[in-house]
Q: What sequence folds into this?
């Protein structure tokens, strides 16, 4: 099975075009003011105007007011939602959209608990646990904590870079990988060469 690729935290049209040309499957927009990669609705509208057929736009939210999520959905043609806070399943499902739920991993028990708590999720995203951050730490977690018997499609995130993603895909066989800081020259500023190298690393083993 081919491992899918999502580039998250896009803020510039040039970076969207570079990601699409490199062959990614999904593009992520961060709607969270606590992030250095946060985009407003006007900025997001310009980004999604880039023609990229067969590529999914994903909107990332963290404990957002439902009215704000609805406001974004009214203006931005997202194909999927991604929740990185403490959102319960009922909240995630209330928007009538496919969604991914982030799981901050401290142990395999966190993953099994999320599988039970979010049965309607399209997939679970495993990221590093940090008491002060909702993902986006740029640091990997202990991959040995990922159990072998996961019942849903899962996405690996946290500290992925061109120099370690090949190992991750080869050893873990995730459904998808999600990268942001690992292909940047500065927060929110993607590097085309790093994007291409990351995609090569994934495709070499998927």
A:
């Amino acid at each position: 099975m081919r491992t899918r690729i999502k580039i998250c935290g896009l803020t510039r049209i040039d970076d969207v075009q570079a990601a699409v040309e490199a062959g990614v499957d999904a593009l992520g927009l961060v709607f969270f003011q606590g992030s250095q990669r946060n985009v407003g609705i006007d900025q997001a509208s310009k980004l999604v105007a880039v023609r990229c057929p067969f590529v999914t736009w994903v909107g990332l939210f963290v404990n957002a007011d439902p009215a704000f999520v609805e406001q974004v959905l009214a203006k931005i043609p997202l194909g999927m939602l991604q929740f990185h806070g403490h959102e319960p399943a009922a909240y995630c499902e209330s928007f009538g959209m496919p969604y991914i739920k982030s799981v901050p991993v401290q142990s395999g028990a966190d993953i099994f608990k999320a599988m039970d708590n979010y049965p309607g999720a399209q997939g679970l995203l495993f990221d590093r646990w940090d008491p002060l951050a909702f993902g986006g730490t740029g640091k990997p977690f202990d991959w040995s904590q990922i159990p072998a018997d996961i019942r849903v499609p899962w996405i690996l995130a946290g500290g992925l870079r061109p120099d370690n993603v090949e190992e991750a895909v080869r050893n873990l066989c995730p459904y998808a990988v999600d990268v942001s800081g690992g292909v940047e020259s500065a927060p929110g500023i993607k590097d085309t060469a790093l994007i291409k190298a990351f995609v090569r690393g994934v495709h070499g083993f998927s």
